[in-house]
Every structure is written in C-alpha cells, then in structure tokens.
Amino acid sequence: MPNYEPLTPFAASGPAALAQINAAAAHRAGRSSRSQIDPSDDRGDGNNPSRADKFALLRALTEARSAFGLSDRTLTVLSALLSFYPERTIDGDAPTIVFPSNKELSLRCGGMAPATLRRHIAGLIGAGMILRKDSPNGKRYRRRDKAGGSDAFGFDLSPFASRAGAIYEAAEAAQAHDLAIRAAREAVSLMLRDCSNLISLALSEGRAGPWDRLADAFSTLSQPLPRRAGIDEVETRRQALSRFTAEVEQAWLNSLTEKEMSANEHDNERHYQNSKSDSHFEKSGREKISAQTAVQVGSTYSPGMDPERVRADAHSNRPNLESPEQRQVQSLPLSFVLTRCRAISDYAASPMADWTEFIRTAALVRGFLGISPDAWRQARSIMGEKQAAIVLAAILERADEIRSAGGYLRELTRKAEQGQFSVMPMLEALKNRRC
Predict the structure, then answer these.
(1) pTM for this one?
(2) In angstroms, how far is CA 55 from the centroid of its own chain?
(3) Which of 25, 122, 379, 399 could bond to 16 as cystine, CB 3.0-4.6 Å?
(4) What's the pLDDT score for residue 271?
(5) Same-domain status, 18 and 115
(6) How far apart are CA 50 and CA 39, in angstroms?
(7) How far is it, in rounded angstroms, from Cα 250 to Cα 244?
(8) Are residues 368 and 419 in the same domain?
C-alpha cells in the first residue's frame, strides 16, 4: 500500500502552518507536472535533472541567500538537516525524509535554542526548501513493515533538490552583482586616490587654478560609502567621481608650464620648428585661417567660410601630402628604433620582430604611462600609427623626467598637427644620451 503524504502539519494553525500548506501544495504540483512531461524518462545514465548534489547546492544557496530571504543562521539549520541524510545526492521527485530529535538537531546547530530552531525551520519551509511530514501524533520516526518497506515522518528535503535550477540561477546573479559592486568600488577608490594626490600637490606647489573649490568638492565626494551600499549607490558615486576626475585632470594640465609640458632640459633634444608657418590663427575674436593654407592642403576656401570646416578639410587631406620627413619615418627599420628605445622591449609578450608587434606593445605601454585613450587616439590620427608608437616609446625612455606623459603627448600632437614636430631629433637625442 502506498504511503500517504499529508498536506497539513500537526496542529495546523497560524502563519507557519499556512506556509507549510502552500509549500507542500506547490511542491506536489511541481512534481506532478514533471512526471507528466516524460514519465518514461529512465535512461539509467545518472543524468537525472531532479537529482542534485547537496553540498554544491548548499554552497550555491549560501551565495544566493538574500534572494530567498534566508539568513546565515537559517542555512546552519539546513546544513544540520542535510547532515542527517547519508547520501550525497538528493532526489527532488521522491520524498527524502530525515527524522532527527529536537535535541540532536539542536546539538548539530551548535546548541541552538528550541524556539530559535523552530523559527528557522519555519523560514526554510516558507522559502520552499523543506517540508514537514508530521505523523498523526506529531512525532518524528521511521516505521518498517514485514515486507521490508518503511515509512518515515519528519522533514522532507526533496523540495531543496527540486529548486536546484532556481538556486543556481540566483547564485550566478548574486556573483555578477557582487562583481559589479566590487569593480565600481575599485574605480571609486582609484579615482579618489588620483584626485587627492593631484589636488594636494597643486595646493602645495601653489599652482594656478580653482584648487580651493576642487578641494571643497573633493571633501564631499570622498565621504565613505556605507559598508553594504547597493550597486545603484556605488554606481552613482562612481559616475560623479568620473566627471570630477576629468575636471581635476584638466585643471592640472592647464596649470602646467611650457617647460613642464615638453620636459625639455637639454639643448640637443629640441624639436625642429618651422618659423614660416602658413597656418595662423588670431586668438582675439574669431579664429581666422588664411586662404593660402587652405589652398596648400587642397581645400576650397572662400571668404566667410566657417574656419572649423576649413580645418576639418585640411586635416582630412593632410595624409595625401606626406613630407620627406614623414616618408623617412615610414622607411625606418625597427632595429633603428629599438636600439634607442630599449625600455619598450620589457613590455612585449615576445621579441618584437615587426612593426605590428611594436605598435601593439606601444598601445599596452600607453596605459602604464597614464595616457588617456583620447590623447592616444589623437596622436595616432595626427602622426600615424608608426610615428605615434615611436613617440610613445621615446616618452617611456624618459618617463622619470616627464611629469605628465599625457600632457606631453598632447603637446607633441598639437605641434605635429601644425607641422612643427619631428621624431628624428627625439631618437638622436636618445642615442646621444646612451653614449
């Protein structure tokens, strides 16, 4: 005769009894629906989706406990209940009854008080992790018959296994959520460090700029985040600090002198400049570009034309008019550069045998020097991939002398855009420096 599975607990009354009834009904309905989908699925290969490893599932539930409203103490009770079941795997489609006494269960929970134990058991039932299968008199025991069969009354662990899919999904979501919070907190910490160092250094050196105002704003943004701050609060702080860091960085670049921007202390490291530049701009009022410049770069110029449009046309047409110096850079052998810029070889994943690997390594070094992606993008656009990579390798050689590698690169890019920069003197200066 099949054993009957009661739906209601012993002495059914109160919220705990209602939670038991609802959980038992939902579990029974779910088990019935799974059996109707494929009642003959018995492949015998151990790949039964209703079976779950109790230890792995408990670990996943520990990570996702907030999604199910469970505390660490409640999970301690669940772990104790699982210890009374000798098998490692639990079948979610068959009753899995354990029947410990209150005293033994309390001991395995570290001496938990009976009232506390009952409260956490009710929490597990409400979360749909276990069910009560109470005997007619409310006792927990196993009854055996003469045919070798048995029937047990106690706690049913099968709902725990039947919810394995939902538990694992919640655990993955919890891991992704924790990772996002950790990454946002790291970004906040790094930006706070950069802003603090720049503002303190600017104030101590008396640099020009709105440093007092930035220091006041920094004191507000540097308030510690709550220990259990959610992703929304941390992300809001990160975005605010991102905007503030950009403002501090710009103020720092504006405070740099021409000497600091170039970091040029040796006469043999001066860049060649053309004093007869055709492009000239008047800073008072609107910028004006000469018709001669527009004609030289192949752009159509007429009085009243928007200067920004003329400059854009000039920039788009410049690559078609390579100077002899640019052609010389393009024909440079890689060994010529590596003998003068040896430090970049330390950052290469493998010995650099071609320019492709050299340019890829320079892009990696850009991050170590603290050069922003925007500055690197502008340098490559104006100078070209190869020349920009050579310039960055040269900056790396003198990293201990250059206070702001990003500002230095922007200044060289500006000079290159005006035709006032040559990379060859940089390489020759590095050669003389090693001699």
Answers:
(1) 0.49
(2) 29
(3) 122
(4) 44
(5) yes
(6) 13
(7) 10
(8) yes
Per-residue pLDDT tens for 311-357? 445 444 444 445 566 677 778 888 888 888 888 988 887 788 888 88
Structural domains in the chain (count): 4
- Long-range contacts from 326-331, C-beta under 8 angstroms, 24+ separation: 326/384, 326/387, 328/424, 329/384, 329/386, 329/387, 329/390, 329/423, 329/424, 330/384, 330/386
Is position 18 within any domain?
yes
The reported pLDDT for the residue numbered 73 is 94
**Both tokens of residue 57?**
């599932």
Indicate whether 248 and 347 sit together in one domain: no
Quote the pLDDT of residue 24: 59
Q: What beta strand segments (E) does 130-211 contain?
A: 131-133, 141-144, 150-156
On whether the CB atoms of residues 369 and 388 are closer than 8 A, the answer is: no
- Cβ burial 255-268 (10 Å sphere, 16+ → b, else e): bbeeebbbbbeeee
**What is the CB neighbour count within 10 angstroms for residue 149?**
11
| Structure-token pair, residue 209 | 């700029």
262 forms bridges with which residues in the sheet?
none
